[in-house]
User: Fold Major facilitator superfamily (MFS) profile domain-containing protein from Bradyrhizobium septentrionale.
Amino acid sequence: MFEILDRRTTLTGNQIKILAAAIIGDALEFFDYFLIGFVLAFLIGPWKLTFGQSATG
Assistant:
């Protein structure tokens, strides 16, 4: 089985789907981190959070 996959020069349809799902999942995860940091920048002042409190949130 592995020998057949080693000889292939292009990706199979399932491999392309797996790669696309991984890229989309990674992008959504980084967007989540960006969104948390963006919102936190506006909440630190009104909520009077210290650096430690904002880092654990």
Notes: The chain has one domain: 13-56.
